[in-house]
Design brief:
The structure holds 2 protein chains of 2 kinds. In chain A, strands 6-7-8-3-9-10 form a 6-stranded mixed sheet, sandwiched between helices. By secondary structure, chain A is an alpha/beta fold. Chain A has 2 domains: about 170 residues, P-loop containing nucleotide triphosphate hydrolases (Rossmann fold, 3-Layer(aba) Sandwich); about 70 residues, no CATH class. By secondary structure, chain B is mainly α. Chain B folds into 2 domains: about 240 residues, no CATH class; about 250 residues, no CATH class. In chain B, α1 packs parallel to α4 and α6 runs parallel beside α10. The longest helix of chain B has about 40 residues. The chains are: A alpha/beta, B mainly alpha. At the A-B interface, α2 and α3 of A face α12, α17 and α22 of B.
């Protein structure tokens, strides 16, 4: 459903993403994990057509994201990390805006807004401007905005950061239903427990390279995903030289 | 606790003198307050209380000025006002807070002016038999003004449930001050001209029996009325002070009023536009033009620009009438050119446009709607007036054509330049004068080239207008040429800009993310 081959991106001297290949099956929930600065956001931005790669191809549902962006973007729902929204719009205006930009008509946009508001626990907040939202609320509205045009592939960058457990559970439920019905989800996260619970396949990226990819069981083996991840990311570094931290001042 | 609040008040006052944009405003406010204070002291030495008209004038002027002083804290906007509820999160006993806020209100310009008003009353009556009453009346009057101003701050804050309401409160307060000062000045002029003094005496007699004027009128009577007014004034001060304590205590307990929720079904501008990408982008643009300070600054500047221009010409001694032809085209040029960096104003929120599969031209159209909606009606409405004032015959079509041409060409050029020549701009949420963290050389190039391009495309029209001053027939031709240039360049610009936007969208987003 989502195929990435030879994706590469450098910023100045540093190679942020180095020959990344990914295969994501239809109907799977794919976890993309890696330490800070490993190239997760850069990769996902290139996958969704927001950042132009130096080399490599991305194809979504058979359409090349960089050669035929209009077709590809119709089937992608995006939740980028650390990007603004038009925050003077209210939540309802925001969702309507996204829906219409994707070619949804007025009535459908309105009814889907209501459905998503109920499903994600946004009821009662949609008439406030997005700038008044907490970070978790912004994430929820962004998730709703990514879903509103019923894409076939969802690409979510840190969708559950700062989201409360209840809403996370609701959203996870929604994503699982989406995948069960044939949708495809790619999400990045730092939360290994969550990835283990939600995803059926994972890829671990460190320093711009994919170090492991496959189904959850293939990647973690006999360990927990967290231990396997720490091992791949370079292992735990013994903490030394912080004696002052354990000698309290009083 | 009281001294804490006083220290806070002094810090707030000192902050008005910090270098920056607020300093000019501080200077203006100080100048106004200084003039009012000086005028009161001067009047108090000039006035002759043996004359009925002068006595009446004292009552009227003191009442007017005291009303002005009482609303003064509201006129500065409620941003810096010490409103009781702001302290509700701190464990301050309500009585101490009430006392502290009252004392803090006495410090600062309104308090100073209230004191000067009281002193002026005493000076006016100095040496007369009722001088003692003037002292008591002045002191009570000044205290009343200060406490009432605190009540008004509370009321104003209660009313300020939305931004619009807050602005209304400020605007009403400023109007009240202007009217109060104007009536005080008018009273002085009437007394000096010795005209209509009977009405003044009647008015003063009415005011003397109201809470607003009774203290200022107290020294004007002997015996029982004087004592009655002073006692009533004392009672008023006591009631106000006790009431203030009760209000502060209550405000600290009651929850903040918030804006009522808009009806669920309303999406504002979005309900009025077609459900197409260009429609919603136009609605979103309109919402930003009307609510974002970076855009609103333009809206506020537009009506001022012609006035300032004509004033400058008048001061320079230029021949005025034909110059009325200039402001409108300049305004149109500026309005069209203003959008030349529109994408940068979205900052990284532009990802929503990058990630969605719609045509670039839709984006360009949507962004062009607010300036068109503002500019075209203004041009059509104002042009006949300016053409008439200019005294140049048959110039109207040329004025309309040139202005429309500049606006539309400007929007066409902006459509292209905001896609290919974007540069970092003030971020969302910043003020209109805030500069981006890094201003590169490309900003200057982009500004200059887009402006130059507009003027170049409109060059032929300018030549035709120039000929028109020799032969009126060219004015009509210039009008058609200007409009045609505008429409053509707008269409061309939107198509070219749309393609460029789609092609360069990832790079635009990248630029926004890096700043």
């Amino acid at each position: 459903m989502l195929t990435v081959t030879g994706l590469r991106k450098s910023f100045g001297q540093s190679l942020a993403v180095n020959d990344v290949d990914l295969q994501v099956r239809k109907g799977s929930v794919f976890g993309f994990v890696g330490p800070n600065g490993a190239g997760k956001t850069t990769t996902l931005s290139m996958v969704t057509g927001l950042l132009r790669p130096d080399a490599g191809t991305v194809s979504v549902a058979g359409a090349d994201v960089w050669r035929d962006p209009t077709t590809a973007k119709r089937s992608i729902g995006v939740l980028p990390d650390r990007m603004r929204l038009f925050d003077r719009l209210t939540g309802a205006q925001m969702l309507y805006y996204c829906a219409v930009l994707h070619g949804i008509d007025r009535e459908t946009a309105r009814s889907r807004t209501d459905d998503l508001a109920t499903a994600l626990g946004l009821d009662g907040s949609l008439d406030r401007p997005v700038r008044d939202y907490s970070i978790g609320m912004v994430k929820k509205v962004s998730l709703a905005a990514a879903l509103i045009h019923s894409p076939t592939v969802l690409v979510l960058d840190e969708p559950f950061e700062s989201v409360d457990p209840v809403s996370t559970a609701q959203a996870v439920e929604l994503l699982k239903r989406f995948a069960a019905a044939g949708g495809t989800v790619v999400l990045s996260s730092h939360n290994m427990n969550l990835v283990e619970r939600v995803c059926d396949s994972v890829a671990v990226i460190v320093g711009g390279r994919i170090l492991a990819a496959g189904t959850l069981d293939e990647v973690r083996g006999a360990q927990s995903l967290e231990d396997r991840f720490v091992e791949l990311a370079g292992g735990r570094v013994a903490v030394e030289g912080l004696e002052w931290l354990t000698t309290f001042s009083d | 606790m009281v001294d804490h609040i006083l220290r806070l008040k002094l810090a707030l006052l000192a902050s008005a003198f910090r270098p920056g944009g607020a300093l000019a405003r501080t200077a203006g406010v100080l100048l106004l307050a200084g003039s009012v204070g000086a005028a009161m002291i001067w009047l108090s030495s000039e006035v002759d209380v043996t004359l009925a008209a002068h006595r009446a004038a004292i009552v009227i002027i003191a009442t007017a000025v005291s009303i002005g002083i009482a609303v003064a804290p509201l006129s500065a906007g409620l941003g810096s006002a010490l409103e009781p509820r702001r302290f509700s999160a701190f464990p301050i006993p309500p009585r101490e807070l009430a006392l502290g806020l009252g004392a803090a209100a006495a410090i600062g310009l309104p308090g100073l002016l209230a004191a000067l008003l009281g002193i002026s009353l005493e000076r006016a009556w100095a040496g007369e038999p009722t001088a003692a009453a003037a002292v008591v009346g002045g002191v009570l009057g000044a205290i009343t003004v200060v406490i009432v101003s605190q009540y008004l701050v509370v009321v104003g804050d209660q009313l300020s449930v939305s931004t619009a309401a807050r602005r209304t409160v400020t605007a009403v307060a400023r109007t009240v001050i202007a009217v109060a000062l104007a009536s005080a000045v008018a009273t002085v002029l009437l007394v000096v001209a010795d005209d209509g003094t009977e009405q003044l005496i009647d008015t003063a007699a009415v005011l003397a029996n109201t809470p607003m004027g009774m203290l200022w009128a107290a020294p004007g009577d002997d015996g029982a009325p004087m004592v009655a007014r002073l006692l009533a004034g004392l009672l008023m001060v006591v009631v106000l002070a006790l009431g203030w304590g009760a209000i502060v205590a209550r405000l600290l307990e009651s929850p903040q009023r918030t804006r009522a929720d808009a009806p669920r079904s309303s999406l504002g501008w979005f309900d009025l536009v077609p459900a197409t990408p260009s429609g919603v982008i136009a609605a979103r643009s309109l919402l930003y033009w009307t609510s974002d300070p970076r855009y609103r600054f333009v809206l506020l500047g537009l009506p001022l620009a012609p006035v300032v221009m004509m004033l400058a010409f008048a001061v320079a001694g230029a021949p005025l009438p034909p110059l009325w032809l200039l402001p409108l085209p300049v305004l149109a040029l500026f309005l069209g050119w203003f959008s030349h960096n529109d994408v940068a104003y979205d900052h990284s929120a532009v990802w929503l446009h990058v990630a969605a599969p719609f045509r670039g031209a839709s984006d360009r159209w949507g962004r062009a709607v607010p300036p068109l909606l503002i500019g075209v009606p203004v041009i059509l409405a104002v042009a006949p007036l300016f053409a008439l004032w200019s005294g140049v015959d048959e110039v109207l079509p040329a004025l309309i054509g040139t202005s429309l041409g500049l606006l539309l060409t400007g929007l066409g050029v902006s459509s292209v330049s905001s896609a290919i020549g974007a540069y970092p701009a003030a971020r969302p949420g910043a003020g209109p004068f805030d500069q981006p963290p890094s201003l590169e050389a490309r900003a200057g190039w982009s500004q200059a080239l887009s402006l130059l391009a507009i003027l170049m495309f409109m060059g032929p029209t300018f030549v035709l207008v120039w000929w028109g001053f020799d032969d009126e027939q060219w004015f009509a031709v210039a009008g058609i040429a200007g409009s045609a240039t505008g429409v053509g360049m707008l269409l061309l610009g939107i198509l070219a800009g749309g393609r460029a936007f789609r092609r360069r969208a990832p790079e635009l987003l990248d630029l926004m993310l890096r700043t």
